[in-house]
Amino acid sequence: MKVSEIHRIKCGNVNCYIVENGTNGILVDTGKKEFINQVMEQCKYYHVKLIVLTHGHFDHAENAARISNALGIPVGMNEKDCNLIRSNTEQMLSAESLLGKLVLSASLKEFSIRTLEEFKPDILLNDGESLSSYGINAKIMALPGHTDGSIGIDVDGAFLMVGDALMNMFYPTVSMLFHNKNDMLESAGKIGRMGNKIIYFGHGRPVSNRQWIK
Ligand SMILES: [Zn+2]
Fold it and tell me: What is the pTM of this model?
């Protein structure tokens, strides 16, 4: 299978990505609704055949239903985040650092006013699952903690999209917001042990992999 390229689409302070190899593409996260036209244009350009949601928070999933319907492509996510489609408040979040608490209070304010357009994921994605049937050499990795159903996408064994399992909002760090702290730290440790990779975050610029400690 051809090697993929990663295209970062900045939607304000949130990233979504197109992973593509000239023939096939997948969209990783969909951005906030204000950016739908920009994201949709790129999807058409790169022959996107699948949407993968790293988790169910609105800033990553808000455009999922509309892009899926408009382009006639399936949405995949982990089953454990399906309750977030109903409401992003279904999985309580905590923060410990001062910055984390600031981000948390801003997020909670948004959770109360943003609602996801209802959709049912077409595909439930689990740890170890291959995306090769969509023409991309990539594998799903369970990264619970930020949310129960957070997943990463390991592309060509070289690039790892982590959603919000790690963050680079202000500096590269373990997730500042978590539904389950132990799971979050375990997921961060698992990523650290994967060795040499480029890490692509849901927020902030990519960096090289490292030991992720609090
Ligand atoms: Zn999130």
Answer: 0.97
